[in-house]
Automatic annotation (TrEMBL):
Stretches of the chain forming a coiled coil according to its record: none
Protein name per the record: Putative permease YjgP/YjgQ family protein
Subcellular localization(s) per the UniProt record: Cell membrane
Native species: Crateriforma conspicua
Bilayer topology annotation: Multi-pass membrane protein
């Protein structure tokens, strides 16, 4: 009897889960792609190329919600129809009924971790790459319609009109990410060309004038090319040049060891610089450009090392929301005894996200700043686990 009941509950959960997962994933894909389409001005070809990269991102968010929705529907309906009371009358504990949902969520959570890893290390970088590869088309489309284009890569273009691929009287403003004077370029005409090998946008200008800051200017007759780097390091995918959130889990440990070694080298350089300044009776050099550069390198290295320690904990915590959502949702649905799917789901989902996500974000920010250990990102999961213990105690007395 218990094994048949387990199979029955698992079949009901799985059936609702698959349908809800397909619907929610498609909905999230449409919302995210539409957002990028409106924000970036992507064309149909770029939208189709973005879809595969957005699938793991959409699934990453859809899995916990659909897992919660499916168990709420099944246990809410069973409690409303009196099935749970019947099973209890036959001598089976209501806790036995929760086991299929817990097993289902426990098996689903590692899958969610893997999808989170794929979304962070492959999906989001792929999305950015498609947008960068489409930047020439995006720029021309906006320049034709609005006569201006503002890029996220630190430059903007204004034109009088666009004839074919020719920009008539373009005015280009380039801002360096590291600060410094703004470059302002004007020309009689110009053209945009994407160089996929160096991941740079080449602005080819004819009879151009350059203003560099407020005091330097120059005239360049004829045709000149002005490259704008779209991706640091060009197409380089060296882990040391990638953000920790873009690294796959299998590379984070290795990169953490490399960063730790680099930190020791930087500390050695700082110690050598300090000793040299003291020996030469020039302590003011510690506050000079060389000393400041070493201190900045040390500070940025420490920041990166903290992020490398935090990122694996973050992905496992995000993935295991499937389990902790179900641990709260399943007993709460049994207590609620409602056969209305949406009211049961809303009653379980809203309190869960209102408790979990603020705690998760708080723990994540504190861990990133180094104020708490990396496992602090699990604080939201721990709180949900504590709530589930209270709810299951009530289910035992059901």
């Amino acid at each position: 009897m218990p094994s048949r009941l387990t199979r029955y509950i698992l079949a009901e959960i799985f059936k609702i889960f698959v349908i809800a997962l397909v619907v929610l994933t498609v909905l999230l894909l449409l919302i995210v792609v539409a957002r990028e389409l409106l924000r970036k001005g992507l064309g149909p070809d770029a939208v189709l190329r973005i879809m595969p990269f957005m699938a793991p991102v959409a699934l990453q968010f859809a899995l916990p919600a659909t897992a919660l929705f499916s168990v709420c529907c099944v246990y809410g309906r069973m409690a409303s129809d009196g099935e749970i009371a019947t099973v209890k009358a036959s001598g089976i504990s209501p806790m036995k009924l929760l086991q299929p949902a817990i097993i289902f969520a426990a098996l689903l959570s590692p899958v969610s971790v893997a999808l989170s890893d794929v979304a962070k290390s492959w999906g989001q970088p792929g999305l950015r790459r498609v947008v960068m590869m489409s930047i020439e088309d995006i720029a021309y489309r906006l320049l034709r319609s609005k006569h201006s284009y503002q890029s996220d890569h630190g430059f903007s273009i204004h034109v009088r009109e666009v004839v074919g691929h020719r920009l008539i009287h373009p005015a280009v403003t380039i801002r360096k990410s590291s600060g410094g004077p703004v470059h302002k370029l004007t020309a009689a005409e110009g053209e945009l060309i994407l160089d996929p090998e160096t991941m740079s946008l080449i602005i080819k200008l004819v009879d151009s004038q350059l203003e560099f800051g407020s005091h330097v200017s120059g005239t360049f007759p004829g045709e000149h090319e002005w490259p704008i780097e779209l991706q640091k390091g060009g197409g380089n995918r060296d882990p040391s040049s990638m953000r920790p959130q873009d690294l796959p889990l299998r590379l984070i440990g290795r990169e953490r060891l490399r960063q730790d070694g680099a930190m020791h080298e930087t500390v050695g350089k700082l110690a050598a610089q300090t000793a040299f300044s003291i020996l030469t009776a020039r302590p003011e050099e510690l506050a000079g450009p060389q000393g400041q550069a070493i201190e900045w390198e040390l500070s940025s290295g420490q920041r990166r090392l903290i992020l490398l320690h935090t990122e694996p904990w973050r992905r496992w915590a995000e993935g295991f929301t499937c389990l902790f959502f179900v641990l709260v949702g399943a007993p709460l649905a049994m207590i609620a005894k409602s056969s209305d799917y949406w009211s049961t789901f809303g009653m379980c989902f809203l309190p869960t996200i209102l408790i979990y996500f603020p705690l998760f974000l708080l723990g994540l920010e504190q861990a990133k700043d180094g104020h708490v250990p990396p496992w602090g990102v699990w604080v939201g999961n721990f709180v949900l686990g504590g709530i589930s213990v209270i709810l299951m105690a009530r289910v035992r007395r059901y």
